[in-house]
Design brief:
The protein is built from 5 helices and 9 strands. It is α+β, with helices and mostly antiparallel strands.
């Protein structure tokens, strides 16, 4: 079942990726903060690399000025996420999260079966806004689209 607005995010272990890789718990990441978490089906995939992550990189300062943390989630291993962050020039502060076993993605109920495309289990393309670990907004994309989970769409939605 997909997580709903008003529900608390599950507390799952992931890898937080920056210059170093460290284990973290989602409960700690979201506690006491306003966060936009966006998920991509895969690092280095076409739309994710040409539009989705770059939109958040370009608009990161706008989120920061609004007091909102930004996190990117993918069902990839931490080393892939680290390499992708480097190639995409992800700014310090935009946290890359590796959900290598899809534990968090499945707990959210937002997994995608990409086996027909040779990708295995992945995250659906989505973005959510949470306050202190409680979902306040959830935007899940229709297959093949990037509209409601873009940086611009999320900035507009949380500004209301």
């Amino acid at each position: 079942m997909t997580i709903q607005i008003g529900q608390s995010l599950p507390d799952v272990e992931l890898s937080a990726v920056s210059e170093e890789i460290r284990p973290c718990r989602t409960g700690e990441l979201f506690a006491g903060s306003r966060v936009v978490l966006f998920a991509v089906p895969g690092a280095f995939t076409p739309t994710c690399s040409s539009r989705h992550l770059p939109g958040y990189v370009q608009r990161y300062a706008d989120f920061h000025e609004a007091g909102v943390k930004v996190m990117c989630l993918a069902v990839n291993d931490a080393y892939v996420m680290q390499a992708w962050a480097r190639t995409q020039q992800v700014p310090p502060g935009l946290l890359m999260l590796a959900d290598g076993n899809a534990s968090f993605t499945r707990a959210l109920g937002l997994e995608l079966d990409g086996t027909a495309f040779g990708m295995g289990l992945r995250a659906r393309r989505f973005a959510l806004y949470a306050e202190d670990g409680v979902v306040r907004l959830l935007q899940v994309e229709a297959p093949g689209e990037l509209r409601v989970s873009s940086a611009e769409a999320m900035l507009a939605a949380i500004a209301r």
